[in-house]
Design a protein that fits this description.
By secondary structure, the protein is mostly beta strands. It has 2 domains: 47-204, outer membrane lipoprotein receptor (LolB), chain A, CATH 2.50.20; 215-324, Jelly Rolls, CATH 2.60.120. The chain has helices spanning 2-33, 71-74, 84-93; strands spanning 36-37, 47-53, 60-70, 76-81, 100-103, 109-111, 114-116, 123-124, 128-133, 136-145, 149-155, 161-167, 172-179, 185-195, 206-220, 227-234, 246-255, 261-268, 273-279, 284-292, 298-306, 309-324.
């Protein structure tokens, strides 16, 4: 009887132990694969502070702010920026796809007038969807979803990829990294901190959005001794919103030693100088941002280079909108 009793006790303990292990395994798997993240509700004054890194331009930090929740007939938010200078920088460099209108249902950004579902809610592990961004078509997959975050990867046919994570507590991306087909990281967008209006952390003050349009972009590297360049380009209105408020320029310039130099002159159709700059031997200037107040229809750009000289020039049209929160 003692032997039978002992054997029964061993079987009972073994069965209990196995049942406990099975329960733990099943619970762990369910918390990962069954988790979903619903679309957050943003409020006017919500904000996110991001650092933006790109290979061509100096890094910058920008506070993105919800300026309105009634765009597109009450179906979209307006994502603005807290600094007019940063709004101009993002308009001319065009490296932040999330400024402007964002839909309520999927927080979709607009590209070429179309809402692009970089996210699609509710997000569940294994979900797959498609969107267009950075002039490329992407297929995205939710790789890992918990109650606190969703990690996703989007692939393009040419081998480019976007790796991004949605932070449920922040209500937006904690990271967004775009790598091109050659393996070059074109954009790294990282969340530093954020605030929710409902928690008493709303942004206050004036915020801005500049609707930009590319007008001119060129780079001259090692232009050489006594080189001269002349070009004429036409400035037309924004296709939907009419005349630009201003033209925004961004430039990098560097001259070597000796007799190296660069001269730049931009004139409008009436031969009035809109922009003039000169750099001498050893001069360097990176990330300079400025504006030309009154765009006209036609511009002529004249450049002269001597010695070892390099220049990058980007021009964009800008229409400025502002809100006071």
């Amino acid at each position: 009887m003692r032997a039978v009793s002992a054997l029964s006790m061993v079987l009972l303990l073994l069965t209990t132990s196995l049942a406990g292990c099975a329960g733990l395994t099943g619970g762990s798997g369910g918390s990962s694969s069954d988790a979903t993240i619903e679309v957050p509700t943003w409020h006017v004054g919500d904000w996110w502070l991001y650092t933006f890194s790109t290979p061509e331009y100096t890094d910058d930090t920008a506070r993105l702010v919800i300026a309105s929740d009634s765009e597109e007939g009450g179906t979209a938010y307006m994502m603005a920026i807290s600094s007019l200078g940063e709004a101009r920088r993002h308009a001319v460099l065009n490296h932040n796809p999330f400024l402007g209108r964002m839909t309520h249902d999927n927080l979709s950004a607009f590209e070429n007038g179309m809402a692009q579902p970089v996210l699609t809610f509710p997000i569940s592990e294994g979900d797959s969807w498609s969107f267009s961004l950075f002039s490329n078509d992407w297929t995205a997959t939710a790789l890992d979803v918990t109650s606190s975050h969703a990690t996703m990867s989007a692939q393009a046919a040419d081998g480019a990829r976007i790796d991004y994570t949605f932070d449920n507590d922040a209500g937006f991306f904690s990271s967004f990294i775009w790598t091109d087909a050659a393996g070059v990281e074109r954009l790294r967008m990282m969340l530093a901190t954020n605030g929710h209006a409902e928690d008493g952390e709303a942004h206050s003050g004036e915020v801005f959005f500049i609707r930009g349009g590319d007008l001119y972009s060129e780079t001259w590297e090692n232009a050489g001794t006594d080189a001269e360049f002349r070009d004429t380009f036409f400035v037309s209105d924004h296709p939907r919103d009419g005349e630009w408020d201003e033209m925004i320029y961004y430039l990098d310039a560097a001259c070597g030693g000796g007799s190296s130099s660069i001269s730049l002159t931009l004139r409008d159709h009436s031969s009035i100088s809109a922009l003039e700059r000169i750099w001498g031997p050893g001069a360097e200037e990176y990330g300079t941002l400025g504006t030309i107040p009154y765009p006209s229809e036609e511009y002529t750009l004249t450049l002269t280079f001597t010695g070892d000289s390099n220049l990058r020039l980007i021009l964009a049209g800008g229409i400025t909108y502002s809100w006071t929160l």
